[in-house]
Automatic annotation (TrEMBL):
A Pfam family recorded for this sequence: NadA
SUPFAM superfamilies in UniProt: NadA-like (SSF142754)
Pathway: Cofactor biosynthesis; NAD(+) biosynthesis; quinolinate from iminoaspartate: step 1/1
Keyword Glycosyltransferase appears in the UniProt entry: no
Record-linked Gene3D superfamilies: NadA-like
Broad enzyme group: transferase
Keyword Protein transport part of the UniProt annotation: no
Signal peptide: none
InterPro entries attached to this UniProt entry: NadA, NadA_sf
Entry's EC annotation: 2.5.1.72
Keywords: 4Fe-4S, Iron, Iron-sulfur, Metal-binding, Methyltransferase, Pyridine nucleotide biosynthesis, Transferase
Protein name per UniProt: Quinolinate synthase
Length: 289
């Protein structure tokens, strides 16, 4: 009997998505990781996702086939930055985007993903929210709640999504007049302003199935087009920009997964004290979702 389960993020290569037991967004992957019953969980995604799986399901061995696949946004914040912000805003709650290290999660009050950021923030009593590390998602949350949102660091972002411009969208619309525009909340507010729909990767997949639009311009990482085309074959999907490719997600290959399964390594290790703190913040999020 198979002693491993492969979970994959929506951005990994098409052939990796094809070999996975489940493909989803960060929230769905956290929920699935918790339910895995096989001895090994192979995580096809960037480092923080594999680490998150190890934290929410500590009884399983989580394998990250390419430890150098690291989210560029997650590295923009340290626990020290959060502790300093807490001193500056003692009444604020700390909401940390899942794209962060376990050490940062451990000094946070609660975690969120792009799928539930507004819901998580609205679940808190505090009026002031320290939000880390994505400034663009922080601004999206500020627009959709009545909270005072303080982005920490002031300019944290995903270099992939932040590169998308309004001009890119206008160029694609000139090529495909009347197309619908869907974007991820990690894009800049000006891009979000010209979009018809803003959501997490899996929210995009659900939206694409129900919209009446025939052509959809996709403002997120290009790996997403694989799932969109598979689930909505009657529609045309166009990448909003050729620059929307996350090199770290593409480091996960079929060959590396097969080698990791054979070697049963490398297994993700998280310091137990840090894991305990991060688990508390992650479980609080899962209870809200
Ligand atoms: P989702 O949770 O929407 O899949 O996003 C994860 C991510 O890394 C976006 O860049
Ligand atoms: Fe991180 Fe951006 Fe890659 Fe998502 S697309 S994993 S936020 S670097």
């Amino acid at each position: 009997m198979k002693d491993f389960t492969i979970l994959a993020h929506n951005y990994v290569r098409p052939e990796v998505q094809a070999m996975a037991d489940f493909v989803g967004d960060s929230l769905e992957l956290a929920q699935k990781a918790k339910l895995v019953t096989t001895e090994y969980l192979i995580f096809a995604g960037v480092d923080f996702m594999a680490e998150m799986a190890a934290i929410v399901n500590p009884s399983k061995k989580v394998i990250h086939p390419e430890p150098f696949s690291m989210c560029a946004m997650a590295s923009r914040v340290t626990p020290e930055m959060i502790l300093a912000a807490r001193k500056d805003y003692p009444k604020a709650a700390v909401v940390t985007y899942v794209n962060s290290s376990a050490a940062v999660k451990a000094v946070s009050d609660i975690i969120c993903t792009s799928a539930n950021a507004v819901k998580v923030v609205n679940s808190l009593e505090e009026k002031q929210i320290i939000f880390t590390p994505d400034r663009n998602l922080a601004l999206y949350v500020a627009r959709n709640t009545d909270k005072q949102v303080i982005p920490v660091p002031a300019l944290g972002c995903c270099p992939v999504h932040h590169s998308l411009t309004v001009q890119d969208i206008q160029d694609r619309l000139a090529e495909y007049p009347g197309a619908e525009v869907i974007v991820h909340p990690e894009t800049i507010p000006e891009v979000q302003d010209v979009a018809n729909f803003i959501g997490s990767t899996s929210a995009m997949a659900r939206h694409a199935k129900t919209t009446t639009a025939k052509v959809i311009i996709v403002g997120t990482e290009v790996g997403m087009l694989t799932r969109l085309k598979k689930e909505s074959p009657d529609k045309i999907f166009v990448a909003a920009s050729p620059l929307l490719s996350c090199a770290d997600m593409k480091m996960i290959t079929v060959e590396k997964i097969e080698a990791a399964i054979r070697a049963k390594a490398p297994i993700v290790q998280v310091d137990p004290v840090i894991a305990e703190g991060a688990r508390r913040a992650l479980e609080r999020m899962l209870a809200v979702s």
